[in-house]
Amino acid sequence: VNIDLAADGLTMQAKGNTLGMFGTLDMTRFSENAFAETHIFYESVSADIDFDYGGDRGIFKLTGGPSVADMSLSGEELVYESSSGDIGVSISGSLLPLPVIEIGLGSGDLDMRLPLRPSDAPEDFGLVFALNDLTVGDAVWNLFDPTGQLPRDPARIALDVSGKGRLLIDIMDPELQTGMDDIPAEIESVNLNSIALSAAGATISGEGALTLDNARMSPLGAGPAVAGGIDLSMIGLDGLLNNLSTMGLLADEQATGIRMMLGLFTRPGDAPDSLVSAIELTEDGQVLANGQRIR
Fold it and tell me: Quick one: pLDDT band at residue 22, thresholds 50, 70, 90?
């Protein structure tokens, strides 16, 4: 195995009273007065891994542009923000069904805000996740779309969620972490600031907000009562279904079933091949789609 790693313009900074050697977190030092801050930045990064195992050879190459990651930890909350750009991955080898697999990413983001201690009042939480300009090489596309039926535009996946809630236990207590399958918490509100998915010529986007009444069970079943709404917009779905049917990846009856299902909670939009939907959950347990009750 040959490994070659390099990072240009690397900067690392860390301070706090919960840090161990090399800036790593030492949770045995965690307390209400704890704090830690870390910052990592580099201009570019590269990795080349070449291995030969029993006559089977493989090559992995990674390149990346400017990237930054910041973490702030207090006795009350964790805040993490990171972004990276111009990422390229190339994988080849005798074990693969293709000469080379290439993956590219224009930029990526991951931000989190999480409360760490129980509280009487709701606290802010949030998550931002995005993969922008995601591409795969023609060798991968040609496996299932050799005639180029589908648009090969870069894909995008993005989610931005925030809200208010409170923890019911101290999740930083090591004794409580043992055997804990989930985190006891009460969510008061969830804001879907944005959601976006685009690939193969189709785009789905949406936004909305929900409130949860933890003192009352939902008429729809288990869990707290939920009220609010979500607005969705879909462009190019019918064209995508047509292309998948033409390619033989989706049977005609399956495409028809999907269209019928979409017809239950969407209506035509203003643009060609577009659908919109306004989903509303009422306090008495009704589910409405574009003003029509579906449950």
Answer: very low
